[in-house]
Design brief:
two-stranded antiparallel sheet; four-stranded mixed beta sheet; alpha+beta; Double Stranded RNA Binding Domain; 25% helix; 20% strand
């Protein structure tokens, strides 16, 4: 039998594909439920879900400017979904491990305007 050999470019492509799969396995996504801001009374985006990636390497100060940063650019990516199922389906399709952070209950303090002057 003959041993199969790959051309150098094909071998590099295989190694790159293997590295990309391994990186996707190590990537952790955080899915959070969007709450309304406290300064807003509307509920326009209250039911949407946000997918963000966890930081995979620690931040370090830049020697020139002193600003904190890292080589990890995945933290800059934010994806919005209309439902939790869509966000989980995206993670499953792309081989990402994930965890879900649900929003806390909204407490309304209903009072009359006259109560401000008592």
């Amino acid at each position: 039998m003959h041993a199969r050999t790959c051309a150098p470019s094909a071998r590099a492509a295989l190694d790159f594909g293997r590295a990309a799969r391994q990186m996707r396995r190590m990537t952790i996504a955080r899915i959070t439920e969007q709450q309304r801001k406290t300064t807003q009374s509307g509920k326009a985006r209250a039911g949407s879900w946000l997918l963000e990636f966890e930081r995979s390497e620690a931040q370090r100060p830049d020697p020139l400017t002193g600003w904190a940063g890292s080589g990890d650019t995945k933290t800059q990516v934010r994806l919005r979904f209309d439902s939790l199922d869509e966000a989980i389906a995206y993670c499953t399709k792309n081989g990402l491990s994930h965890h879900v952070v649900k929003a806390g209950p909204v407490k309304l303090k209903i009072q009359a305007y006259a109560d401000n002057f008592r």
